[in-house]
Amino acid sequence: MKSRSLLVQVLTVNLLLVAGTVLVATVAVDVHFGALAKRREVLVLVLAVVATLLGNWLLLRRRFAPLDRMISTMETVDLASVHQDAIEPPVASAEVERLHGAFRRMIARLETERREAGRAVIRAQERERRRIAQDLHDEVNQALTAVSLRLQASIEHAPPELRGELTETKRLSAQAMEELLVLARQLRPSVLDDHGLLPALQSQIRDFSDQTGIRTTFNSRGTVPKLSPEQQLVIYRVMQESLSNIAQHSGAHKVDVELSFIGRTILRISDDGHGFATSRNGGLGLSGMRERALLAGGQLSIWSGEKQGTRVELAISR
Amino acid sequence: MSMRILVADDHGIVRAGIKLLLENQSDLSVVAEAADGIEAIEQALASHPDLCILDVGMPRMTGLQAARGIRAHLPDVRVLMLSMHDDERYLFEALKAGASGYVLKREADHALVGAVRAVGRGEAFLTNAAERSIIREWMADDSTGPAIPLTPREEEVVKLIAEAHTNAQIAELLHLSEKTVESHRANVLRKLGMRDRVELVRYAIRRGLVEP
Known about the structure:
The structure holds two protein chains of two kinds. Chain A is of the alpha+beta class. Chain A is built from eight helices and five strands. Chain A has three domains: 6-75 and 83-111; 127-186; 193-316, Histidine kinase-like ATPase, C-terminal domain (Heat Shock Protein 90, 2-Layer Sandwich), CATH 3.30.565. Chain B folds into two domains: 3-140, Response regulator (Rossmann fold); 152-206, Winged helix-like DNA-binding domain superfamily/Winged helix DNA-binding domain (Arc Repressor Mutant, subunit A), CATH 1.10.10.10. Chain B is built from ten helices and six strands, in the order E-H-E-H-E-H-E-H-E-H-E-H-H-H-H-H. Chains A and B meet through helix 3, helix 4 and helix 5 of A and helix 1 and helix 5 of B.
């Protein structure tokens, strides 16, 4: 059975109480219902009961309104973009205020925990990527180097009919090496640690432009402030993800990247591609970027539309 | 008479591949091998080769440091640096350290033998990728990179500190007294304006002295 709302339950109880009181009172004062002259009194009594109920309902509804609002806030609250101020403080009874306080504290705790968990996940992910990149770079590629060297040695000794085949094998091994290097570079932005943010972004743009042939400009304004490693990484990864989306989906011919350190830090990547409907952007790694931005204290905005290009903007306030 | 060569790389399989390829040539012979920079210097002093092929990134002492050491003791020995596959960062430093050639590992299969012969003849040798990288850096930055405030000896100490060797171990590896190592350590921290080992490790990674 569906439980009735609190308002209905209280009203029902009140109705029964008032009706009961009226009944007992009439019996006590010995009203004679039989008499025709008393009809008006009965009518007055019924009207009084109805008026009481109506007043009751109006007053109670006002008292219960904050509770309703709180429930809908609780139902719709989005942990991914929660703002404490959005949860309006109620002017109501002590109980509702307590409930509200408890809710706020719970949200704050959840938010902190979520943030910490998110950070831990990203840190673990970066660590894992770093390790894989290192392995690819140090172990797999060294092995491939050895393979290439040995194949070269074999080619020099091989009978002519085998040479073509061996050369082809060597070419394949060189190709595998190239691919591994690109992969390792994407996994671990070692230039970020070694040379800092700007050179890392520049070399990423250069690689992108070389690989895709898309004309790419890079402008930076202001001096680089002290950014935490987390913030540098989010800037690097947002650009990486955006460029990879552009290369795969946009059909763009030109990309402009702007990095401004005037006031707050803003990274802006705009392309002239065919864009996409921003409502369905789940598959483009954008939600992952949003999450990362949020965890580093930044905010990601995306403007796009069919045939209008795409603009991705990351803002980090200090 | 064939050219006598020392091969130093911390990866045994790469060393073996290089050896196989070089031994294929009648005019080249590998006379010594080493798995790190310190061993490379020792082997070079013991066998006095004509040419040393040194991998840039090795433990205990990098190829760059070993090149400096070898060139200091044996100025007539030529050095050819072999670098990580995509790492053109240490090109300038390699040349400054006295190397006459710089070959990326991914180009080693077709470029190494030619490079060895060219450097053996006393010429400089850079692979295409290395040349491109020089030009690119030249165009991107008109200064020639940040000045290195440390002496080669101090850099050697920094690398070993970053690799978590104790003062006593460092003293033994570099044939120094512990006191000297300590004063090197203090000088380095003062010169770089750093407080502790953690900052020093970070510096060592940035300078390519150790792998992160």
